[in-house]
Amino acid sequence: MPEAVSEAIAETVDAFHYGRFHLVQPKGRGHRSGMDAMLLASLVAEERPVRVADLGAGAGAAGLAVAARLPQAQVLLVERSPEMAAYARKSLCLGENAALAARVELLEADVTLTGRARLAAGLPDDHFHHVIMNPPFNDAADRRTPDALKAEAHAMVGGLFEGWIRTAGAILLPGGQLSLIARPESIAEIVEACGKRFGGIEITALHPRAGENAVRILVTAIKGSRARLSLRAPLVMHDEGTHRFSALVDDLNNGRAAYPRKGSTPQPRKKS
C-alpha cells in the first residue's frame, strides 16, 4: 500500500506562509517544495470564489498556498504518484490545516490523460477558473539521480508541456487562467504548446540578482484570448549585496501578496 511505504520513510512537517498551512514532505528523497511552489501560487490573484486545479501537485504545496491565501478558493490537487499523493493526504489531515482542508480535495490521476479517460478520472471539461502547474522541467538526460521519486518529479519526457497544457485547456472555463513556473529554456516549448488554446501570454523572468541570468520564468495565459504575448519587467530575488529576498519576492513567497496579470489591481499586502 502506498501509505505503508510512506510510513517507513523519514518525513518532515514544514510550515509555510508563517504557519498558515503545513506540509508533510519526504525527508532525504523525492521533491521538497519551496519557493517555486509559493511563487506559482502567487499567480492566482482573485477575490471572488474560484475553482483551482493544481496539476502535478506533489505533496500539495502550491494548491495549499492558494487555499491559505484565498479563503473563497476551492482547490483540487491532482497527483499521479501514489507516494506523493499519500503525503498530500497526510497534509490535509493535519490539525494545523483544519481551517482550509474542507476546501481542498485530492485526485490521484495522470494529468496527461485525454478524452473519456480524463473525464472518467475526474477532470471535467470547462470547470476550473485557474489551473496552476509546476511540471518536471529537466530533460530526462540531465541530472540523473538514483532517487526514483525525485527523478519522476524533475525529469520530463518528450512533449510534456504539450500534454499538460492540453489538459489545462480542456478543464479551464473560457477566459480561465493557466499559470506555470518553468526554466527559461522552456519558453519556446511552452508558447508552442499554448498554440491556439491560450492567448495573452505573459512571461516574467526571475533573476537571482540584478545583472545575473534568469533561473525561472513565471507564465500566465488566458484560455481563448487573442491578445499578444507580453514580456513583463523581471523580478529580482535578492537585494544587492545580500542574501535577503527583495520585499516583493518575500511577500509573494510568504502569501502576503499576489502577482496579478498586467492591468489587474494588486492585492494589498497582508500582515503576517
From TrEMBL:
PROSITE patterns with a match to the protein in the record: N6_MTASE
Keyword Transferase set for record: yes
The keyword Transferase is annotated on this UniProt entry: yes
InterPro entries: DNA_methylase_N6_adenine_CS, SAM-dependent_MTases_sf, Small_mtfrase_dom, tRNA_Adenine-N(6)_MTase
Residue ranges of every copy of the Methyltransferase small domain listed in the record: 39-184
Pfam families membership: MTS
GO biological process: methylation
UniProt keywords, alphabetically: Methyltransferase, S-adenosyl-L-methionine, Transferase
GO molecular function: N-methyltransferase activity; nucleic acid binding; S-adenosylmethionine-dependent methyltransferase activity
PANTHER family: TRNA1(VAL) (ADENINE(37)-N6)-METHYLTRANSFERASE
Record-given protein name: tRNA1(Val) A37 N6-methylase TrmN6
